[in-house]
Amino acid sequence: MTRENEANPDVTASLINQQGDTLYLVHTEREGRGRFTCIPSDERLSLRLIHEGESYSYVLPEAEDTGCVMTVGLTAGNQIPVEIASSASLRHALFGLSLMHNGRILAFDTIRTDTIPTFRQFDRQSLPAGVHQLTLFDADGRIWAERLFFVAPKEGRDLVQADATFADSLIAPYRKMRLQIQAPPKTAVSLSVMDADATPTSYHGNAATWFLLSSELKGFVRNAEYYIEADDIAHRKAADLLMLVQGWRRYDWKIMSGNAPFFKKQPIEDSLYIYGRVMPRQLYADGLFTPKKRREELSRVDNIKLSATLFNREGFSMKGQTLTDDNGYRVNKQVQY
Asked: Are 271 and 277 in contact, with CB atoms under 8 Å apart?
């Protein structure tokens, strides 16, 4: 839950049925995020919450008759158990289960659902740090269940301590500075500099939080460094809740498996490119009096020659020409003159 101009509030909500009866109480756990589990039925359920005297109701999506449920346990121990259950119509069906990290498949298995849930487990110590994606799919490539989970980095294995100190006592604008960097042997080090005065006060991230966490999630992650500072039960619960609420799919499994087309939108940018599309001309009342052949010509969007010119304040220009494809899409490669 979020509110404008207010920190994420802690609220209690009620899961109610169509008669208005309260079935469960739902509590936010951290920074306005919360979770609940319920068994679906034919009737629609709603989530009702009251905050500062105002009541809000949200109708939950209608439950499907056929489907699978994937539950992942992440709070204790070095093993990550995965429980998979299905509706009666999918029992004894064959599914594939893949585990992906950074677009790379780490594990794959086949399972058959039964009257009782099917279990698999993964060793946390053998998994790399960061966001992992579990996908349950059938022979046609349809995804039946998907789940993200987070593995915290280990000090010494995933995180390396590097210390930097100023070698010069005088620091001034536009003045050269020397840094003394100390790190373990064979450590690759990169340097980035930020303006502290221009940095938002809520931003406290670093390279580890960005590469391992924030880049895999949707929206702003407040206090991202909290989720990698420890690997205890409290931090695991918080990270798992973050995956459930703000998780998204950086790598599209359907495209990677060949079940959805891949569109190459950006080629190797050896120059500046301008992307766009020419839309068909809309003919209204005057179109009724336009000959059919002329109307067809006006509505065509293919093989249209386009040119684009960019200018800057110094007087330099970049020009490019192109032809639209069958659907009107075009890409102009700009060349400097």
From this structure: no
Measuring CA to CA, which residue among 247, 197, 198 is closest to residue 221?
Answer: 247
Q: Give rounded-to-5 percent helix, strand, coil for the chain.
A: 15, 35, 45
Handedness of CA 225, 132, 129, 75 (dihedral sign): positive
Domain boundaries defined on the chain: 12-59, 65-159+211-262, 272-336
Residues 6+ apart with CB under 8 A from 302: 324, 325, 326, 327, 328
Measure the CA–CA gap between 317 and 313, rounded to whole angstroms: 10
Asked whether 79 and 149 are in contact (CB, 8 A), the reply is: no
For the chain, 337 residues long, give each residue's pLDDT as a single digit of tens. 665 555 566 778 888 888 888 888 888 888 778 888 888 778 888 888 877 777 888 888 888 889 999 999 987 788 999 999 999 999 899 999 999 998 899 999 999 988 889 999 999 999 999 999 999 999 988 899 999 999 998 876 777 777 888 877 777 777 788 888 888 888 888 777 777 776 665 556 677 887 888 888 877 788 888 888 888 999 999 999 999 888 777 778 788 778 888 877 666 667 778 888 888 776 544 545 567 777 777 778 888 888 888 887 777 888 888 888 887 777 777 766 5
pTM value surpassing 0.90? no
DSSP labels, 281-326: PPP-GGGGGS-HHHHHHHH--SS-EEEEEEE-TTS-EEEEEEE--T
Would you state the structure tokens that stand for residue 143, as one six-digit string?
Answer: 């995804």
Two tokens, residue 40: 């679906």
Q: Is 241 helix (H, G, I), strand (E, B) or coil?
A: helix
Residue 131 has phi, psi (to 5 degrees) of -90, 130
Task: Please give the class, per CATH, of domain 65-159+211-262.
Answer: mainly beta
Distances (CA, A) of 332 to 36, 169, 301, 312, 321: 50, 51, 16, 17, 6
